[in-house]
Write a structure and sequence with these properties.
There is one protein chain. The chain has 76 residues and is mainly α. Helices cover 50% and strands 0% of the residues. The longest helix has 12 residues.
């Protein structure tokens, strides 16, 4: 199974806040059934979900680097 870097970092941010997946999902305004596979590293968030996590979940974009977003990363 592939572990995704974005989900792992989101899960780290959730855990550092002492929140359950359900509590973090509620804070981010994302359904728990969407958040759970992201936090498990099974699925990357959509652009909309990532935006909600960054905006409402107290997660900084600085937590991520270009390599987290795929093999080729983001354009520099």
């Amino acid at each position: 199974m592939k572990t995704l870097l974005v989900g792992g970092k989101i899960n780290l941010a959730r855990r550092s806040q002492g929140l359950t997946v359900g509590g973090f999902a509620k804070k981010c305004r994302v359904p728990e059934k969407t958040m759970e596979p992201i936090c498990l590293g099974d699925r990357d968030p959509s652009a909309k979900t990532l935006f909600l996590i960054l905006k409402y979940g107290d997660v900084s974009l600085d937590l991520f680097d270009a390599g987290d977003f795929g093999e080729e990363g983001l354009p520099e």
